[in-house]
Amino acid sequence: MNIGRARDLDRAFFDRAPEVVAADIIGCTLLFEGCGGVVVESEAYGQRDPASHSFRGETPRCKSMFGPPGTVYVYRTYGLHWCLNLVTEAEGIGAAVLIRALEPTHGLSAMRGRRSGMDDRLLCAGPGRLTQALAVSGAIDGLDLVAAGMTLTPREGDVDVVAVPRIGISQATDLPWRMVARGSRFLSRPIPRSMAA
DNA sequence: CTATAGATAATCT
DNA sequence: GATTATCTATAGG
């Protein structure tokens, strides 16, 4: 795996079901223009998934979701926050993975500056926080992640991935498509008590 | 630690 | 007109 350098390998990684990519991306390092860190939380959004923007077909907002695997889908939510997604599966399907939290490792000072000195634990602990820290915006929506200036490097060693219900949605809340790195202290919210095991 | 309110505006019905 | 893949601050246990 050599994600972020060879375009063909990008495709191979992303050309799978969103819940598989969401799990595999945990532990990988995501960088955008020198800032970023290790992915510790993600969510899958699928083709026949009522909680997905793509569920009712292509609209102006979500058209990037129907692009090739590895496409960046960035949209604004609640009128003020950006959310970063990476398209998975096949072109035209409308599946993606939402990047929800990073353990910050690169460009700490720049990220702290953009987040007005917020504690490192909360620097990238949430979809809106992470885009603010990395300066991700709608400007890169629809681009291939490499063209957008991102790199994604494979994880080293083992990661304990836990699948739990997704956050902030009101449909299909039973689907365990939120993937988190067990034991991480950089999550947007903790693993539910009932599933902490 | 959990719970809740308020901000704030694009998007979709 | 309703909804929303969120964040922050604040209040209470």
Describe the structure.
- By secondary structure, the chain is α+β, with helices and mostly antiparallel strands.
- The chain has one domain: Methylpurine-DNA glycosylase (MPG) (3-methyladenine DNA Glycosylase, Chain A, Roll).
- It has four helices and eight strands.
- The chain has helices at residues 7-14, 18-24, 108-114, 127-134; strands spanning 29-32, 35-45, 72-77, 81-88, 95-106, 150-153, 161-164, 178-181.
- Strands 1, 2, 3, 4, 5, 6, 7 and 8 form an eight-stranded antiparallel β-sheet that branches.
- Strand 4 (81-88) and strand 5 (95-106) form a beta hairpin.
- It is globular, with a radius of gyration of 15 Å.
- It starts with 6 loop residues before the first helix and ends in a 16-residue tail after the last strand.
- The relative contact order is 0.23.
- The mean pLDDT is 92.
- The protein binds a DNA duplex (13 and 13 nucleotides) through strand 3, strand 4 and helix 4.
Secondary structure layout plus pairing:
Layout: H1 7-14, H2 18-24, E1 29-32, E2 35-45, E3 72-77, E4 81-88, E5 95-106, H3 108-114, H4 127-134, E6 150-153, E7 161-164, E8 178-181
Antiparallel strand pairs: 1-2, 1-6, 2-5, 2-8, 3-4, 4-5, 7-8
The chain binds a DNA duplex (13 and 13 nucleotides) through strand 3, strand 4 and helix 4.
Radius of gyration: 15 Å
Biggest sheet details = 8 strands, antiparallel
Overall pLDDT level:
92
Question: What order do the helices and strands follow?
Answer: HHEEEEEHHEEE
CATH architecture group name:
Roll
Number of strands: 8
Q: Looking at the structure, what is the overall shape? A: globular
